[in-house]
Amino acid sequence: MTSKKVIFCDFDGTITVNDNIVAIMQHFQPPGWDTLVDQIVSKQISISEGVGRMFALLPTARKKEIVDYAINNVTIREGFPDLLAYCKQQGIEFLVTSGGIDFFVYPVLSAFPIPRQNIYCNGSNFGGSHIEILWPHACDDQCDNECGMCKTTIIRRYDNETYERILIGDSVTDFAGAKLVDTVFARSHLIDLCEELKLNYYPFEDFHEVVARLKELDKS
C-alpha cells in the first residue's frame, strides 16, 4: 500500500525569502537583540527563550508599526502557489510548521488556500507594556529542546508507517524535524546539517524546483 504524503513546510526564510523575525529586529533595533540571535544559533539558549526575550524588548505601544512592517515587507518565494496547487492535485496534506508569530504568519498566508488548522505558529499577547510570545504548540514529552513551536511534536502525529513525511526548511528550527522525516528539501544552514548527518535531502532555491523533484519522485 502506498503511503500518504504529508509536507511540513517552514515559513520564515522558506515560504518567505527573508526571515521575518530577524527583519523585524533589524528594523526596530531593540538593544541586545543581535546577541540573542547569536545565542540561539550557537545553542547557548533555547529557541523559545531567545525569541521570547527578543520580542519582550519591543513595546506594545508600537504594535501597529511593528505589525504593518512585518506584513508589508514579506516576499513570498517563487513557485509557492504552484506547490500548493500540486499538493491539492495529488492529495498531499500540506502543513505550515512555523517558528514565526501569529500576527504576521496568519495575515501573510491568508492570501493562499491553506486551512487555518493546517498552520502552526507561535502566538502573541500585546496586552502588557512589551510583546509577550505565547507557545500553543510546545514540545511534547519526547522533546526537551524548548522549541517554542515544536515541529517534531507535530511530525510525530503522522506515523511513518502510514505517511511518507517530507520537510521543507532552511535553518535551526528545522534541524530536529529533518532527522525524523523521509525526505528533506533544504536551503541555507539546513543543507549543512543534512550533509553532516547524511540525510536524504534535495537543495532548492524556489518552489518550482520542489514541485519538479516531487514529480520525479512520484514517477520512480
UniProtKB/TrEMBL annotation:
**Catalytic reactions of this protein:** 2-hydroxy-5-methylsulfanyl-3-oxopent-1-enyl phosphate + H2O = 1,2-dihydroxy-5-(methylsulfanyl)pent-1-en-3-one + phosphate
One Pfam assignment: HAD
Which UniProt keyword terms apply here? Amino-acid biosynthesis, Hydrolase, Methionine biosynthesis
What pathway does the UniProt record associate with this protein? Answer: Amino-acid biosynthesis; L-methionine biosynthesis via salvage pathway; L-methionine from S-methyl-5-thio-alpha-D-ribose 1-phosphate: step 4/6
BP GO annotations: L-methionine salvage from methylthioadenosine
Q: What is its EC number?
A: 3.1.3.87
Q: Where is the signal peptide?
A: none
Q: Which CDD domains match?
A: HAD_Pase
The transmembrane residues are none
Q: Does the keyword Hydrolase apply?
A: yes
Gene Ontology terms, MF aspect: 2-hydroxy-3-keto-5-methylthiopentenyl-1-phosphate phosphatase activity
Superkingdom: Bacteria
Matching entries from InterPro entries are given as:
HAD-like_hydrolase_phosphatase, HAD-like_sf, HAD-SF_hydro_IB_MtnX, HAD_hydro_PyrdxlP_Pase-like, HAD_sf
> What general EC class does the enzyme of this chain belong to?
hydrolase
Function of the protein: Dephosphorylates 2-hydroxy-3-keto-5-methylthiopentenyl-1-phosphate (HK-MTPenyl-1-P) yielding 1,2-dihydroxy-3-keto-5-methylthiopentene (DHK-MTPene).
NCBIfam families per the record? DKMTPPase-SF, HAD-SF-IB, PRK09552.1
Q: Which family does it belong to?
A: Belongs to the HAD-like hydrolase superfamily. MtnX family.
Q: This protein is called what?
A: 2-hydroxy-3-keto-5-methylthiopentenyl-1-phosphate phosphatase
Organism, per UniProt?
Paenibacillus xerothermodurans
